Amino acid sequence: MKVKSSVLLIASVMTVFGIMMIPGSVSAEVDETNTISTTVTPLNEEVSLQRTVTTMNIPEDNVLPWGTVKGSASEYAERYPVIIQFYKGEDPVHFAQVDVKGDGSYEYKFRVRNLDTNSGQFVNIFEGQYTVKIFKVIPNTNLQA
């Protein structure tokens, strides 16, 4: 009887963790269509730093575990990652670095909701309005011949 209940407990825990690991739904999504501002700062003769500022809003009643920051296919400088910074007001909350795909797009998935294993309750990691700053190195297009 003891073995049967132990196996059942282990199977239940594995099922819960398995369900939590599947990123089937996205609860918060940031893309460049809600851009507040974009600035380009030359770094040298070949590349510039493009900074895009946008917003992300995660509702208080959110029940989905994942959020995503993604950018569409565009020009990019090879071998330079995209840096993503999350701010709640003026306070830095989370930073990430992701590689650019071959077509110039990028995607960063992150947890917005998690299970507290001590209490068994779900906890919102992100909630409310955030400013998201996205930094990408791009080739200069105004090169003189």
Highest CATH level, the class:
Mainly Beta
Structural class: mainly beta
Cα shape: elongated
The figure for the number of domains is: 1
Largest sheet: 5 strands, antiparallel
By CATH, the architecture is named Sandwich
Helix content: 10-25%
**What is the CATH topology?**
Jelly Rolls
The radius of gyration is 20 Å
Q: What is the averaged pLDDT score?
A: 79
Low-pLDDT windows of residues:
11-28
Task: Give a short summary of the structure.
The protein is built from one helix and ten strands. It has one helix at residues 2-21, and strands at 28-30, 35-42, 47-58, 66-71, 82-88, 91-98, 106-111, 113-115, 122-124, 128-139.
Features:
Jelly Rolls; 145 residues; mainly beta; 14% helix; single chain; 3-stranded mixed β-sheet; 5-stranded antiparallel β-sheet
